[in-house]
Description:
Radius of gyration of chain A: 18 Å
Largest interface: A-B, 54 and 56 residues
Structural class of chain A: alpha/beta
Largest sheet of chain A: 7 strands, parallel
Strand order of the largest sheet of chain A: 3-2-1-6-4-7-5
Strand content of chain A: 5-15%
CATH superfamily of the largest domain in chain A: SPOUT methyltransferase, trefoil knot domain
Oligomer: homodimer
Distance between the termini of chain A: 44 Å
CATH class of the largest domain in chain A: Alpha Beta
Order of helices and strands of chain A: EHEHHEHEEHEHEHHHHH
Amino acid sequence: MRVVLVSTRNPLNIGAAARAMANFGFAHLCVVNPYDLAFREARSAVGAAPLLQTAEEYATLADAVAGCRLVVGTTSVGHRELQHPIRRLEYGARLILRATPAAPAALVFGSEKFGLSNEDLSHCHWLMRIPTTGQDLSMNLGQAVALCLYELSREPNTAAAKPEKVRSATAGETEQITLRLLEALAKSGYVNPVTALSTDEKVRRLVRRLEISPRDVPVILGMLRQILWKLDQ
Amino acid sequence: MRVVLVSTRNPLNIGAAARAMANFGFAHLCVVNPYDLAFREARSAVGAAPLLQTAEEYATLADAVAGCRLVVGTTSVGHRELQHPIRRLEYGARLILRATPAAPAALVFGSEKFGLSNEDLSHCHWLMRIPTTGQDLSMNLGQAVALCLYELSREPNTAAAKPEKVRSATAGETEQITLRLLEALAKSGYVNPVTALSTDEKVRRLVRRLEISPRDVPVILGMLRQILWKLDQ
């Protein structure tokens, strides 16, 4: 289980996230595109959690979650127009626990100001919502991380109850399929250049909704490869 | 239900506590003997929660909780010698909820460095412990407040709620997709005529494993139609 912080601006928040991870026994921190200075400051802060030292830095969210079979975004604000299944923290945490450790999972947190972008969201299988009551007030990042990890470590016994039966493809495999499909769609003229970016996001989300199983990955890639070959003729 | 911060040193923590209160619908903040400067800074911070403006300041914990019938202290560290009943957060929160609103209650948080003093503790009926796993690492104050208020506003039944049923496409829609996909594969030369029949079956099963949702059906059909059109050129 890895915690992924995307475009975090405030070193105190990186530090707070790391501290909450240490509090609840999580060790794998990834930062995506942090403000360089923020990350360095957080690392060098007095009393910085040792896991900050081993935190991994990535240029893109896709890279950070490539090895994961389940990618869950987080949000505390409800009014955004979202095309993802949204699950309340209590229930979502149970789903994650059921999937891990068979399926390595990532829990993704957006930046303090803007949360997760649409592009970020398109890499997520679903979203977990922290059930705040104040509608328009987002949560402090460090507190959001603490709440999610608390909930994930809340009832360890019920968590171990039922293993998930269906293993999903890794995020890296799913992204490969997405890219080949986008290539085929571009070559077929399906993609309007003007709206290409939003098409990318829609296709990426669609492919993730399919929850493709690992054994179907090579078959689907084979199909797409053949179609691409033919389209090139 | 009031939140009482005793001898808080860092204005950011007072601000974080206030924000968490706003997130979870708590309005009554009391500060006991704060560093004057910290309290003033927290109050004047940009974006300070309105409830900071109405926060009450007391010289002693006794004054702050005078009107309460239940006073609960908080701790995240377990090794202190304590003469109070200690209850885990999940269970303690339920006890508090059962007591309020008939009995106005106070939730008391100590200073960042030292937690609650023995004198402070003597005002508490019992203690609530946040179940961290790292034994020697105390929690960040703002995160501790957030966790307690989250647990207090948590609905115990939602975690056990049934997963929402995901509606799948009809068999007819799924078959339409299957047929178009098979057509595209045939036109690309993916299908070996000798093994065509078994390929049909494999593709049909694969498409069903994807459990395509009704709203994705027209999108996928549109993609396949476009690819077929291009393959025919």
